[in-house]
Structures are given as structure tokens and as C-alpha cells.
Write a structure and sequence with these properties.
Layout (H helix, E strand, L loop, with lengths): L2 H6 L8 H14 L10 E6 L2 E7 L15 H4 L18 H11 L8 E6 L3 H9 L4 E6 L8 H11 L2 E2 L14
Parallel strand pairs: 3-4, 4-5
Antiparallel strand pairs: 1-2, 1-3
Helix pairs in contact: 5-6
Bound molecules: zinc ion (ZN) (2 copies).
One zinc ion binds next to helix 5.
Length: about 180
């Protein structure tokens, strides 16, 4: 090993390089998000291979959220952030990753998820039931306080762990 070359390396994050790599992919996926809400990206990893990726937006073949395709996302005065997800036409990044894996026949059992944002209440349920065993996320998410105990239980079950990141997201409508 060339110790001199190592000494010249800039200081790295305390994360193992592999985790940092998958988190970077999640942030890259988030740049494709087409939703007026947060841009979110998620990567599904199994056996050190990416088996599916996802970002949030309206279902295939429907008008994009940024083009007014989702009533809930377009009217935040009526639909408060973090609530009424059942009335939202946008599919979340984690959910999209699971659905893509299912669509193309990749087992999600025993997978790890890397996501830009802590999974919401609904995605957390789905991830557990799809057999996801670990979640790494960068930005935290807060549930409706009425269900915070249940949400914590879901997060513990997922082994949800926040990791520091230097990555940033620029929305698709903010790109040059
Ligand atoms: Zn949306
Ligand atoms: Zn979600």
C-alpha cells in the first residue's frame, strides 16, 4: 500500500465508502423527482447490488405533479404537509422502488434501503412488509404526533438509521 498517496487523500466521511456510494445514488435519483413536495430518492440494495431505484412523482402515463398533475400537492393550503397521503396521486420514492422491483421480478426480501428522506408512515409499513431489513436515510421526517408511537415502532422494526451526508438535492425545476 502506498501510504504517501493515502496521506494525500482528503478527509473522508466516517461512513463506509459503500454506504456513501448508495446514498449518493439515492440523491442522484431524487434529482429525477417530479413532485411539488420534497424531492426524494431511494435505492434498494440486495447482496451489494442495486436491484431497484425510485423517486417520487405521479404514476406512469399521468400528468406530472410539477405540471399540476396532483391536486393535493398543488393545494397545500387545503392539504397540509405530511397529511392526507391517501388523497395524493404521487407515488413515493421508496414505494416506487418496491413496485419497480416487483414489476421486474426482483425479490425485495432481505434488502437494505438507502433514501434521501426517512420513510413516511405509509412507506414504512410497505418496506417492512416487503422484507426490507435496514434503512439508511439522510433527512428526518416527522409523523402526525397522534401516531408518533406507532411510527417509532415502525422505524425500530426497519432499523432506520440517520446518516450524515454532504449531498444536496436540486429539484428538476431548479436545474439550469
Ligand atoms: Zn406531488
Ligand atoms: Zn412515503
Amino acid at each position: 500500500m502506498n501510504e504517501r498517496a493515502d496521506a494525500d487523500q482528503p478527509e473522508r466521511s466516517s461512513l463506509p465508502a459503500r454506504d456513501d456510494y448508495y446514498l449518493a445514488l439515492a440523491f442522484a435519483a431524487a434529482r429525477r423527482a417530479n413532485c411539488r413536495g420534497r424531492s426524494v430518492g431511494a435505492i434498494l440494495v440486495k447482496g451489494d447490488r442495486v436491484i431497484a431505484t425510485g423517486y417520487n412523482g405521479t404514476p406512469e402515463g399521468l400528468p406530472n405533479c410539477l405540471d399540476g398533475g396532483c391536486l393535493r400537492c398543488a393545494d397545500r393550503a387545503q392539504f397540509v404537509s405530511g397529511t392526507d397521503y391517501d388523497l395524493c396521486i404521487c407515488v413515493h420514492a421508496e414505494s416506487n422502488a418496491l413496485l419497480t422491483a416487483g414489476r421486474f421480478g426482483a425479490s425485495t426480501d432481505g434488502t437494505t434501503v438507502y433514501t434521501t428522506d426517512q420513510p413516511c408512515f405509509s412507506c414504512s409499513k410497505e418496506l417492512i412488509q416487503a422484507g426490507v431489513v435496514k434503512v439508511f436515510y439522510a433527512r428526518d421526517w416527522h409523523p402526525d404526533p397522534r401516531v408518533s408511537d406507532d411510527y417509532l415502532r415502525l422505524q425500530r422494526r426497519l432499523g432506520a438509521e440517520q446518516v450524515p451526508t454532504h449531498y444536496e438535492i436540486r429539484r428538476v425545476d431548479e436545474l439550469p
